[in-house]
Amino acid sequence: MELGHRAITYVDGGKGVIATDRRRGYRAAMRRHGLDAHIGVLRGDNTEAAGERAARQLLDGAELPTAIVAFNDQSAIGVLAALSRAGVAVPGEVSVVGYDDDALSRLSCFNLTTVSQSAREQARHAVIAAVERLDQGRTESREVVLTPRLVLRGTTAERV
Q1: Residue 81: Cβ within 10 Å count
Q2: Residue partners of 65: CB distance under 8 A and separation at least 6
């Protein structure tokens, strides 16, 4: 939205709790920015194949969105593959964003803009929690919230 996109489609992640939270987050963000009329959710899951199917569905439609946000990086890579095969320029015609900042998203052939959940930091907290339970006998639960961050790479551009 900061890049001027209004027609932003979300490729869903399925039925799980995380998928439900991300879908709600997408809808809430679109409403918060006054883009209710542009809300579009396509069925998907956490695979490249789901991203490809969603992109083909968009390609068969009347008009492409200016941006596509995928449930995860795998799905976003499927979107990129289908758009590339169809000759759609990313990010020239459509911007694409994934989620998770996995190793594939960093490869130069994808160079995917994504949301990082700081996997290394998550692992560090998990190890600390396990050690505290095993060595220190901690029994009370504790919640650690890490702030996700947008990692800008080559699949997003300003809408002009």
Answers
A1: 16
A2: 5, 7, 8, 9, 38, 40, 58, 94
Closest CA to 26 of 58, 71, 89: 71
Tens of pLDDT along the chain (160 residues) come to 577 888 999 999 999 999 999 999 999 999 999 999 999 999 999 999 999 999 999 999 989 999 999 999 999 999 999 999 999 999 999 999 999 999 999 999 899 999 998 878 888 888 988 888 888 888 888 888 888 899 999 999 887 6
State the Cα angle at 44 between 91 and 11, rounded to 5°: 35
Q: How far apart are CA 65 and CA 8, in angstroms?
A: 6
Q: Measured between alpha carbons, how far is 102 from 100 in angstroms, rounded to an integer?
A: 5
What's this model's pTM, rounded to 2 decimal places? 0.86
Scan for tokens 């995380």, then name that residue: 18
Q: Is 103 helix (H, G, I), strand (E, B) or coil?
A: helix
How far is residue 85's CA from residue 59's CA, in Å, rounded to a whole number? 11
The DSSP annotation for 31-52 comes to HHTT-GGG-EEE---SSHHHHH
